[in-house]
Write a structure and sequence with these properties.
It is built from six helices and no strands. By secondary structure, the chain is mostly helical. The chain has one domain. Helix 1 crosses helix 6 and helix 4 runs antiparallel to helix 6.
Length: about 140
């Protein structure tokens, strides 16, 4: 029989790894969708950025794939999680662009666009938590 103390310690030790893998999975899935279905991303690229929207869509997809991979690997997890926090902050202008562009859409779509704005905060905090729990 396993004591409660041992089971709790084992679960606690595994939680940072699960949290890191969940974050990596989110980033990798999001990065893949930039290539599988780029049009929705193209539409939210801020108009002030130079060049074609598709270039920015692919570049951000590559960034998410690279950062997700770094978070998944224990040796690069700490740096990868710091980059994830920065990436989540960097995509905020795209979410603002979406909210501006969708201000005349039906209420459910507007609500989704506006709801994305504060979502960046928990994502940044999640990445910071993974960074803190990663070994040096």
């Amino acid at each position: 029989m396993v004591s409660t103390e041992t089971a709790t310690t084992e679960t606690s030790a595994a939680d940072p790894t699960r949290t890191a893998f969940a974050l990596a999975g989110l980033l990798l899935a999001a990065g893949a969708t930039h290539f599988a279905a780029p049009r929705p991303y193209d539409s939210i690229v801020p108009h002030a950025l130079p060049g074609r929207a598709r270039w920015w869509t692919y570049a951000s997809g590559i960034a998410e794939l690279a950062v997700g991979t770094a978070v998944a690997i224990p040796a690069t997890r700490r740096t990868g999680a710091a980059c994830a926090a920065g990436l989540f902050a960097a995509v905020l202008p795209a979410n603002v662009q979406m909210a501006v562009d969708w201000r005349d859409r039906p209420l459910p779509l507007r609500a989704a666009a506006y709801g994305r704005l504060p979502l960046q905060i928990p994502l940044i905090l999640w990445a910071a938590k993974v960074r803190r729990s990663a070994s040096r």
